[in-house]
Structures are given as C-alpha cells and as structure tokens.
Amino acid sequence: TILVLDFGSQYSHLITRRLRELNIYSEMLPCTQKLADLDWTPKGIILSGGPYSVYWDDAPHVDQAVFEIGVPILGICYGLQEIAWNFGKNVLAGEKREYGHAALKIERHGDGETGGHVDKLFAEIEDDTEVWMSHGDKLSHLPEDFITIATTKNAPFAGMAHKSKKYYGIQFHPEVTHTPKGKIVLKNFAVDICQARTDWTMGKFVDQEIERIRKLVGDKGQVIGAVSGGVDSTVAAKLMKEAIGDRFHAVLVDNGVLRQDEAKQVKETLTAGLGINLTVIDASKRFLDGLKGVTEPEKKRKFIGNTFIEVFQETAKQIAAEAHGSSAAGEIEWLLQGTLYPDVIESISFKGPSATIKTHHNVGGLPKDMNLKLIEPLRELFKDEVRELGKNLGIPEDLVWRHPFPGPGIAIRILGEVTPEQVRIAREADVIFIEEIKAAGLYRQISQAFAALLPVKAVGVMGDKRVHEQMIALRAVETTDFMTADWFPFDGAFLKKVSRRIVNEVDGVCRVVYDITSKPPGTIEME
Ligand code: XMP
C-alpha cells in the first residue's frame, strides 16, 4: 500500500485514483496522521500539494516518523516544500505564484555519485516533457544532500532527489491529466522505487471485502441498512447479501415522493433479481400528510429527513424483534452505510468538512442514538469504481448507470407545496423526459436529468379551448463531480418532441421550459 498524506490540495484524491488505475492499492489520510496509529506499514509515502506556505505559523506538517521509517517519499508541490523544510528551513523563495503548463527539462545523473536511484523517478520519460504547475512558494536553493533532477524556466528546482535516500520532490502535479507523463512518474515511484504490488483489482476487492465483513460481523451478527434503489446502496446491499445472506436486512422506505413506480421496481430488482432480504415500508401517506402546506425548501428537506429517520427506526425495531424471535440469529448490531471515498475524504480533511450549502439528507445519515455500529463497505471506492463493483456483482446495467436521485425525492423538484396531484404531474413528466433521453441514446452522456414542476400558471390553447395550467421545467446537466455542472445542449428537435409529449400526455401542464442555468450559480436541484 502507498500512503498518501493529504495537505488539502484540490488534486489530492487524484493521486490515489491514478495509483489504483495502476492496480496499486493506495490510501489517503490527513497530513497529520500519526504513523504509529496505523496497523499497517506503507511501502512508500506521497505528500500531496496544499494551499499553504510551509512558513506560515499554522502551516500543517507531517509526523516526524514519516522521515524515520525508511520508506521512499515523494513530495508533490507543497509536499516538496515540506521535505525541503525538514532538511533545512531556509530554502524557500517567497510566494511567487505559477499556474499552468510548463516545459520540464529532466537532468540525469547516471550511476556515479548517487548509485542511480535519483534517475529512477523520470525513467522512460523524454528529457523534455510538459507538466502542469500550480504552486505558491518555490525553492531558492537545494536543501543539503539533495540534487536537481528537473528544471523549468521559472523553477530551477522543479525536481529534486536526495543523494542517498529515496526521497524525491517535484514542483509540478503528476496526478492531473494536464501532465501527460504524470502517470509514468507515479508508476516509477510506486512500482520501481517503492516496489508496491500491482495486483489490486475489483475481483480481489470483492473477495477481500466479503471476508472482512464476515469476520467483522461474526457467524450470528445481523446488519440492517436502508436502500434507495440507487447504485451505491444497491451495491453495498448486494455485497452484504454475498457476505452474510439473509442476516442482512434491507429496508426501503416509500416516502411518497419517489419516482413513478420506483418502490415496485426496486422491490423486483433487489428481491427477485438480486436475492436481497428486503422489507418495503409504504409510509407515503405519513410523508404526504406532513408535507401539506410546507413550501419552504429547507423545511421540506428537514421534514423528509426526520420522518425518514423515524420510520427507519421503527422498522428496525420491528425487524430486530422478529429476528430475535428466530433462533438462528443474534441481535441486530450493525448499520450498513453506502459511504463513498469522496465523503470520507471530505470528513477526514484536517480543515473539517466544507460549509453546508443545503441540508443533504442521505439514506446513510442516521442518528447515533440507534446504538448500532457502522459498516461501510464502499468507503474506499470512487463512484466509477462502485459502478465497476456493481457490474462485478451482477447488478443490472440499468441500475449501475442510474442518475443520482436526492433523498428528499421529487419533493424538491416540485416548487411550492407538495400535494398528491403535484406529485402525479411531476412524475408523469419525468417519465416522458427520461424515456426520450434514453431513446435518443443520451442517458449516459448526461449526468443527471429530471422534470421539475413550477407552480405558476400560464395560458395556452389546447384543442379549441383556452387553458390556464402549470409549467414543467426540464433540467439536464453534465458534470464529473456534481460540485459544478453545465446544462446539456440538446438539439431543438429533441426538445420539441419532449415538449409536445409532455403537454399532450400530462394533464395539468400547458407549457414546458428548459433550464439553462449552470452550477454555480444555480444548483442541480431546484430547491
Ligand atoms: P445540488 O442541488 O446541491 O445537488 O447542486 C448536487 C447533487 O446532490 C444531489 N442532492 C442530494 N442528494 N440528498 C441526497 O442524497 C439530498 O438532500 C440532496 N440534495 C441534492 C443532487 O441530486 C445532485 O446530484
């Protein structure tokens, strides 16, 4: 395993990502991680970039053990400065920012004085190569016992290596795609210099994870978890099913604001298709009754979130009582959560999680007073790895590629009050829009699409009659991380077809508009 210590650069997680693409297992932890607290020893350590200057009083620094355990170290950007700072505090020039492409010139030293290890980082890369720079401070001269292994026009020490130890620092970012040979640099470091194993695959992950779950839970332990029909919770549930069979209890809460026929479909796929032990609770009346008169977006979110927790807790109690009654099983002690790596990264960051923009209610966000221990089998994976894992576990393609759907459901896609009639309209329009997107072969290209209902009335003529009805707003975005997003450029013929179908087929709608707001300033959802 390669340990990545994160100083908070926006690119840090990509380091882990690239290493896994090379079939090398890698974990990222906050830069302040004490090595003595790990129950494993890394084969090598990478210090990431970060938005600081090592000279600031509150600048973060790594555990001294990093320089004592004797494994190779690669410092990237701030990481390079952290190494330099450890080998002599006066080696940095002030903050001169440099962003963008730079031409890197590699300097080779041969086997002479240094025994050849210094050349290994840039093996198999031409002497002149393009790199991506994004940094504040740069080195003014080398720390003691280091030599230069690469330069750029503005950075005379764009790469350095220790003369006898396997410590390397680079000023550029090898983990971004703007550094075309960056992956080779990471491979040289991890495989040739650290001798990390390159046998990490999804199949192996599945076996290891099933083994780990079995050990953790024991032969009697029981696990409960909420599922939503989305890819994360389904993959997590299927993994539990493979590990402990019916001692895993999945719960789907029908909150009345799921998509059309969703509860039914999820039941079919999970129970009949995947053999998961699933209980569906129809709580739609309770949710819809409680939503009466609520128009404030945050109030809707809070009400749905809290009610979800109440219903889940009641169901858990009931399932626990039944399970306890049957002789084979123990108590339910565990709660499954579909937490992914990006959520983990966010919460382990030493700066603390980023500010809350909206109250996100996830199926996972359950209260601590349930007294259950958490089990999070996906916490090491990125979204596309979860998809791959899903395919590996035999989950249908359709589900694996499903667009994300928010916990508060279409309640936050119905602006204003949520009534059963408004739910019907929003659902029917959504079905048509998604059907047409799939028919046009655009579903995978679009990251998320849905129909929202605007509770304003406009005039139209339908048949020979004047009507006064509501509007549907279509939303479709492309994004990689859901933090920023662009609206999808449909062609006119497509929009015309969708609009005609919605107006003709959905009672209560006489106009359709397309939302052409990017995020930011818009958000993906409308509330
Ligand atoms: P926004 O609207 O914040 O959405 O741009 C970003 C992504 O998050 C999803 N989203 C949610 N997911 N619970 C969820 O599980 C929520 O409360 C929630 N709100 C937004 C949204 O669908 C998009 O994918």
Automatic annotation (TrEMBL):
Q: What is its EC number?
A: 6.3.5.2
Q: Which Pfam families match?
A: GATase, GMP_synt_C, NAD_synthase
> What are its GO cellular component terms?
cytosol
The entry's function note states: Catalyzes the conversion of xanthine monophosphate (XMP) to GMP in the presence of glutamine and ATP through an adenyl-XMP intermediate.
Assembly and binders? Homodimer.
Residue ranges occupied by any GMPS ATP-PPase domain in the UniProt entry: 200-402
What is the species listed in this Swiss-Prot or TrEMBL entry? Periconia digitata
Q: In which pathway does it act?
A: Purine metabolism; GMP biosynthesis; GMP from XMP (L-Gln route): step 1/1
Protein name as annotated: GMP synthase [glutamine-hydrolyzing]
Work out whether the entry's keyword set contains Repressor.
Answer: no
Single annotated GO MF = GMP synthase activity
Q: Does the keyword RNA-binding apply?
A: no
Sorted alphabetically, which InterPro entries does this protein's record hold?
Class_I_gatase-like, GATASE, GMP_synth_C, GMP_synth_GATase, GMP_synthase, GMPS_ATP_PPase_dom, NAD/GMP_synthase, Rossmann-like_a/b/a_fold
Give the HAMAP family listed for this entry.
Answer: GMP_synthase
Q: Where in the cell is it found?
A: Cytoplasm, Cytosol
